[in-house]
Amino acid sequence: MGANKKKLLTGDIVTNAIKDSFIKLNPVTMMKNPVMFVVEAGTIIVLLMTVFPGYFGTEETVGFNLAVFLILLFTVLFANFAEALAEGRGKAQADSLKKSKKEIAANKVVGGSVKQVPSTDLRKGDIVVVSQGEMIPGDGEVIEGLASVDESAITGESAPVIKEAGGDFSSVTGGTRVVSDKIKVKITSDPGESFIDRMIALVEGAKRQKTPNEIALNTLLTSLTIIFLIVVVTLAPIAGFLEIELSVPVLISLLVCLIPTTIGGLLSAIGIAGMDRVTQFNVLAMSGKAVEASGDINTMILDKTGTITFGNRMASEFIPVGGEDTNAVAEWSAVSSVKDETPEGRSVLELMKKEERTYSPAIAEGGEFIEFKAETRMSGIDLLDGRKVRKGAVDAVRKWVETQGGAIPSDLEAKGNAIAKEGGTPLAVAVDNKIFGLIYLKDTVKPGMKERFDQLRKMGIKTIMCTGDNPLTAATIAREAGVDDFIAESKPEDKIAVIRREQAEGKLVAMTGDGTNDAPALAQADVGLAMNSGTVAAKEAANMVDLDSDPSKIIEVVAIGKQLLMTRGALTTFSIANDVAKYFAIIPAMFTLAIPEMEALNVMKLGSPLSSILSALVFNAIIIPLLIPLAMKGVAYRPMSSTKLLQRNIFIYGLGGIVVPFVGIKLIDLVVHMWI
Ligand SMILES: Nc1ncnc2c1ncn2[C@@H]1O[C@H](COP(=O)(O)OP(=O)(O)OP(=O)(O)O)[C@@H](O)[C@H]1O
Ligand SMILES: [K+]
Ligand SMILES: [Mg+2]
């Protein structure tokens, strides 16, 4: 993974977070977090009572009020600090990205010649030439040539990657450097809308919006806060009626202990940290919603080639059919591949070289190249003399030959199936109405796939492999990799159909893709992960982009999403449970203050009524920073079903939430009681 994997925290991030904690005290900012806003309002009221005791008639309790004020202030600051700390890493990353965004000179093609212009002048549709050693001036698509490009500025990966015209490896990103050769690039973004611009906005959190889940939880927390506010406000007159005197700072303390400050203070930090974990993993999530959706995924659609297998499908053998000779198969395979820039196409020419075979490229001259398309599953060339040469999936070529009235050699099927049963891909080679033979394309399943799919199954996620390959190859690879289901001979629109079918059953679907033809399916899926190496269309349709272009990462992304949801659930449970213990400390204390005979209520045997209130408040404050590491790192995660997870978490965090504060408040009280 990327060399830009950062340390969790640096001194700078902490210092800036401390500063930001104070800046965030601005009530306009605080209002976005109703729970903490109420605490801040209480802090201000108690501050006034401390500073102007004469005015409020609070001279007797100035010391206690000052203590309450300070504890409340720190409660708010701690919550701000949690959020600022979570934002810190993104900000630091944004700064380093901005450095890679300086203005550079671009060689723009104008008419027939090349003119130097500043990169900021480039617009969508402009064409530029980038040579060895130069920086690519903007996002675009290679339209001519092949070059190796150092993308470490965005991916942190130092090994250069090959970018070439045509196919799924044609997109380039502004700010990356060409390390060898020369390419012509068509610019695909206007200034300010580039990938790096979007990435900066993302990691900076500039466009961070609350997710539906967060909004729902926030509504719940706000409702609880309002309910407790009403309870506490009505308590005052009732107490007054009973001639029990309750001071305003005591009532505010009670309110702060009652409302869910722990989760209120940590909620946004949990969301930001979850996004950040995805980013540190070199995956860019376009929204927090995408990350959360990945935590709820039920079905995962996976490509065979390149996701489950290494994807470097290489021609390894020419196999004649119908009594033809190997040379003829090899020659026509080569002719059909002269201009085929796909890895499969190039591997055919490489195999020719390796086997020291010759063919005459001159026949292909002037011919019309037929590019490989996932819809036709064929590629080839229409020669000047009228002959049409094709190679492609066996069933596709067979149909093509049949429509021209050709006969199908009797050994075609058996020889094709033999390749497929070994997990290889057979390509048939034909000229007009005659099939000459097969090309054996070899590919291997990535190691460790079976274990990963086992984990997914434990999480209750169904995996479906979709491949354009034939059913036999698909079945072999599916079995080897251990996916739950597969769809063979699928065209791009079939992927959408599968996604829609699953969604119609109420399931959330994730998929990966890199080609332009994957774009509609990526957009349809609830979580669409596009490869950075892929086409611009795919990247725009998806809601996540993997900078390392490793499609199997979708599995880890789902794990991170689950962890985010779990962390939020666990800390909410903990927060609400730990408030319960505070009632036991603070409510008896309040009544004992008014009616000393109520001392019997002091079940926790705390020092004094005032020390009980302060201890509960101190615990309420310090639990926030104590839980920051958990909020940022996420709770420990093991693959298991959602129901089991829920039970486990309620047990650990619910019970923990009740027990921990009893112990904590008791210990704090031992110290506090030395003064009060
Ligand atoms: N360059 C090519 N020329 C001719 N036929 C090809 C070429 N590349 C692939 N094919 C054929 O087209 C089929 C579909 O290819 P496609 O890339 O759409 O899917 P795939 O790679 O097999 O599956 P996946 O969706 O898992 O990537 C392949 O199985 C193969 O038979
Ligand atoms: K609380
Ligand atoms: Mg493919």
Could you please describe the fold and organization of this structure?
Its EC number is 7.2.2.6. The system is composed of three essential subunits: KdpA, KdpB and KdpC. Mg(2+) binds at residues 514, 518. It is a single chain. The strands form three sheets. Strands 1, 2, 3, 4, 5, 6 and 7 form a seven-stranded antiparallel sheet that branches. The protein is elongated, with a radius of gyration of 33 Å. Strand 19, helix 21 and strand 20 (544-546) form a beta-alpha-beta unit. The protein is of the alpha+beta class and 676 residues long. Helix 5 (62-99) packs parallel to helix 10 (261-280), helix 10 packs antiparallel against helix 22 (554-594) and helix 22 packs antiparallel against helix 23 (609-633). The structure holds adenosine-5'-triphosphate, potassium ion (K) and magnesium ion. Potassium ion is lined by residues 256-257, 259-261, 579, 620.
β-strand percent reads 15-25%
Structural class: alpha+beta
Largest sheet: number of strands, sense, barrel closure: 7 strands, antiparallel
Approximately how much helix is present in the residues? 40-55%
Shape: elongated
Named once each, the bound ligands are: adenosine-5'-triphosphate, potassium ion, magnesium ion
Membrane topology: Multi-pass membrane protein
EC number: 7.2.2.6
Family: Belongs to the cation transport ATPase (P-type) (TC 3.A.3) family. Type IA subfamily.
GO molecular function, one term: P-type potassium transmembrane transporter activity
